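> Could you send the Cell division protein ZapB prediction when you get a chance?

Sure thing. Input:
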Amino acid sequence: MESLDILEQRIDRLIAVYTELKERVRELEEENQRLRENAEQEKLQEELAALREEREKLRQRLSKLLQQLESLGV
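Output:
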């Protein structure tokens, strides 16, 4: 009977460890998703900043071209 008790205890510990590991995997998957979303958000913010900078440069160039045309009387 003692060996059956030992086996039962081992199975109970195994189930407890399995449950803990399953919960930890779920937590890590959620954290991984958050990190991916943050990385994507950072990438989009960098792209937006680059596009805004490019837009400002284009505005300056267009403004310069318009001034040149105005000075020609066109």
